[in-house]
Amino acid sequence: MRARPSPEKAIAAYDFRDGTVGWELVKALDLADFGRGVANEAVEMLSAAKPPAGLMNVVTDPGVSGLLAHEVMGHASEGDEIVKKRSFLTDQVGKNVGSALVSMYDDGTYPGAHGSIPFDAEGTPAHKTPVIDRGTYRGFLHSLETSGVLKARPTGNGRAQDFGRRVWVRMTNTYFGPGRDKKDAMIEETKSGVLTRKWISGMEDPVGGSFQAVTLSGFGIQKGEVGERVRGMTLTGNALSILKSVDRVSKEIALDGGSCGKGEEDYVPVAAGGPYMRCKIVVGGG
Amino acid sequence: MDGLDLAPDAVRRAQSEGADAAEAYAITFTSRSVYIEDDVPKVAEDRSETGLAVRAAKAKRVAFSATTLASPSDVRSAVAAAIAGLKRVPEDPDFSGLPTEAGKGEVKGAWDASTATMEVSGLLDIAKTFTDAATEAKATSVPKAIFRIQDYTFRVANSNDVLANHRGTLVFAYLTAKCGSKGKFGEGILKALNTSIRSLDFAALGATVARRAAANLKARAFKGKLPGTAVLDPLDLGEVFLTTVGSAVNGEDVHKGRSPWTGKLGQDVASAGVTIRDRPRMPGGLASGVADDEGNATRDRTVVEAGTLKSFFADRKHSALIGVPAGNGYRRAVATVEGAYTKPAETEPSNLVVEPGRKSLDALLAEVDSGVYVEKFAAPEVNPFSGSFAMEVRNATLIKKGELADHVKVALLTGNFYDGLKNVVGVGRDLTPTHAFLTAPGCAYVPPMAFDGFELVGQA
Predict the structure, then answer these.
(1) Is this prediction's pTM over 0.80?
(2) Which residues in chain B show pLDDT less than 70?
(3) Domain finish residue from A176, A195, A219
(4) Do A4 and B257 touch (CB under 8 A)?
């Protein structure tokens, strides 16, 4: 949905629903209400302010938390990247990679999620694979090939875009597990920072351990209160520094569907998500 | 069976089954690829495919279908699907008919014989040339690389007796190098596109990507903020041009009012040193051809001249709506034609060319007192409506008094690209072709350029 008082100020907002379901997903929606919600957000974004810049407290919404899970830790946990030693997590199994509040999974069995599969492209049943357990890195995602090379159990992550493409190690539904905090309490305890609002895109850096996450918009946080809406932001930083800075994690989690490429091609359906998380990230916006 | 010959058959069949007007687009291609992993070839591929797209119209209703072509019966099923669609689709009040003027002839260099006839064994030799060059550098390997050549021909036929043909070749390479040891690594990433495999120097590309990997390894997290001049490498800059200028002069975006340049013809939208043309007739251009993917005759046009907005481009439908000649209806991408037949033609740039200046990259850098030279972003994404951006730098080097200084990372280059176009302080001389993403039509040929007004933001 796009709002446009003048061509110079056209802005777009979006919302979507997804899952491994049928038309019932659409039938269950109040489409008029859905449309109004997106339109109202687009109009509201017209008057959004420039986001602040620099290293700051960021409360990530479930969509952006999912982007961190997928881009920051998920790609770097793909077994083929480990075989190539193209991942900053290559020698990290058993080591501390985040605060004790951080747990993360790749779960191809997640009911109804966009990346759920009964079995992967090699016939291995889908698994729920712990990647991080209370801050400790547990291990990698595998195809049959990488499980053979690394002498590990296959995890049901050997996936191909279609019959014309080769099998790579790919994520399914990747998410941070829930915490114990209430979202509102997390914000009340934040003196200053930003709250993200929906994701646009992400880009991994498994070698260097950094990432880029682009948000649709966000809100400033001042003295424990959500303030003015800000325009889209880009988040970046060192993955391990960010995860070690996580000090609040909400009870509620949600997953968003999307598609994921490997380098330049090979797109497969995935989902990513998590709770609201408070951490320190470098923020910038135009 | 010659799949291309089935395009006119599909048009006749659609008309006989009740369409007022019909269009068929048939494309056949051979694709050869080599995938490198950890310095060695892992997969080699040689495959061919033929596909057909059918557009049928009745009054203001327009329906589309597509199929792979394995036998003449596929034509019957594709036409039947389009005709059936006519009963279900709503009217399109803006539909004003199919093209009436076909592009004829050919553009020199769009098809290259040595590329079309290269076998997988030749690609393997090229992959080795690249890998050997990249791994000459100390502690450097090639974790992943893709080398692909495609030879394709398409034919467009419609019920206005338009019959257009085009043959082309495409070369696409996605190249990486990794360097370092003991858990500390840097990575360089590069893409290369051309219509001729002989025009690419894979040894030089290997050396470049290895150099980028080494620079990435040396890079340190940038602290603070740095306003100043940003010099941008053409490969990612071209992608930014496609996202922003490619949208701002896109006739569909103009018609729908989502182009920030709507209503600005004749106004200054860029610095005086910036001239941008859409050049479908450019010799050797990746998107070059005398006909677009609707069959319209193509024409070169200047969209921005010395900073002033001069023109927009459009496909058949939007050309009628905004009053410009048609010629920019595209389905095929410039990195691969795979899947081109699965979608209708839409308004897209052909070869979007920024007129080069006279300065070398070194000369551009030498003029910068304080700033940053960015060779690679994580993803060069800019909001096409507003122009705002904040892009993570992956290969970036600070510039101090005209000299390259420290390599930096964990930082965002922020700003507004439309504002940046009005603050161009240098245009380089060497054009590099690039694309937006794998299946997106359109190609940009841009030189390195220097912008004022952007800011590098790192940790506090």
Answers:
(1) yes
(2) 1, 460
(3) A176
(4) yes
